[in-house]
Structure prediction request, 222 residues.
Amino acid sequence: MTLKRLWHKFYIDPRRQRLMRRYGEEALSKLDAVFNESGVPYSLIYGTLLGAVREKGFIPHDCDIDLALWADEDYAPARKRLRAAGFEPKRCICVDEGRFGYEETWRYKGIYIDFFHFFPDGRGCYYGTEFYNQDGCPDWKTSIARYGGLKVLKTLLPVAKETEYLPFGGIRARAIKSALAFVQEYYGPGWRTPDPSFVYPRKGETNYEELPDKLGVVKPLR
Prediction:
């Protein structure tokens, strides 16, 4: 294990987990208000959605909040409200200048919130993109230095705009109605058992495609 990974394991990650316990539900409540006032859909996704389905709250070892947005919606008014509500823009990752894939990261009281944008696939469904180290690179910094960006993965998962509110700790949070199907497909048959060592993707368990002709370009979010 590298010194950087040790630093994250014994200092950064525990600190972020403490912040999640203290401010996580507050952040989710504010996010819900912002998107509702802006009239645009969103949902819990990935680890935060798994927490809603399995734990009825945050996963104990989770360090951030994951939300799904839809690329065919206008989120400009929501971004203005996010700033006014105390959320700070940090960075974005673009594929083809954001036309094919897009992810943005914000921060609230030390908590990082990732917005994963899902794009229409032309067949009535949506696809997502995820980003990884380039082959032979130990981290994002090396990937960017050597290749100009990150490896792109296209995911085809049960994601739709229909949502409902689920119990989540002391609040209620909005999730896709296909939450159970998403969790089962994304995390595999062992999703009910907590696994702090989980690393996505697990080949054969999720419908995904590596895109060697695409590049995830990291930029400051303004």
Observations:
- The helical segments are 3-38, 46-55, 76-84, 140-147, 179-187.
